Amino acid sequence: MTEKEIYDALDCGEPPQELLEWAKENLGEDPETKCQIISDFRDMIYARGECTPHRTDDAFLLRFLRARHFIIERAHRLLVNYYDFREVNPQYCQNIDLTTLKKIGADQVILVPPYRDGNGRRMMQYRIGSWDPEKHSLDEMFQATIATVEMALIEPRAQILGGICLFDLAGLSMQQAWYMTPNVAHKMVQIMVTSFPIRIHALHIVNQSYVFDIIFNIFKPFLNDSMKERIFFHGDNMESLHKHVDPKYLPERYGGIHPDYNYEYWVEICRQNKQVVNEMKELGYRDSELEEKE
């Protein structure tokens, strides 16, 4: 990879033809019916009145349709879940300062590489063993996760292709596991599966220990069979991970070729895109660092 390929800016423009063809084959996004489906979806939102979206333009509604294979009923349920989550959990996604969340990246607890994997998908990495609950609250972890998802979803590529997650559990302690309550597990599943228009294609677990078994038993009741099939356990066997993710798209610590790119890199990528900045403001986010420069 060249430096230009590594620093992969968000592409918020119209998807290229080959990606649209992939979406037609895999998501049911047919150009001949897309406009009518969006219109029918919008009519359903108004007719049922189960939520009041802050936007109902085509581009926004497309995120929910793509996430549910253009099945209107399922897309509507996802939309309602999305706004219900935001209403019930305002501490995670309203009036959040993105600048304050950068400190999580500095400690390399959450990382978003500034490049896509071999399938064109973004990757989010968690190093739970590096998490100090007294330094970074659970609220902040959720805030950073949701902000990352919201920024990624502005990119049509991410809407179409989805993403993958990697959980590194090296150093995970019982002290950290203590925070993983059923309520926390439920909220994490809401973010990754039921309440945001993102499709997680795979969740890779590495360096897990007996402590993880305790946590996973808490999560199991909230996972359906489809999600369970997308979870892969690798332990310290990086060759097992490489069967799913080519090493050239991984950090050196996982047998790859890249340095660690923390959360701050992701924020900087997003800051370069005016559409992302504006849409995050519409959602109630702020960026005190950018505000000071202005």
From TrEMBL:
GO MF annotation, one: phosphatidylinositol bisphosphate binding
GO CC annotation: membrane
Species, as recorded: Tenebrio molitor (Yellow mealworm beetle)
InterPro entries linked: CRAL-TRIO_dom, CRAL/TRIO_N_dom
Protein name (Swiss-Prot/TrEMBL): CRAL-TRIO domain-containing protein
Annotated transmembrane regions: none
Matching Pfam families: CRAL_TRIO, CRAL_TRIO_N
Domain (CRAL-TRIO): residue spans on this chain: 97-262
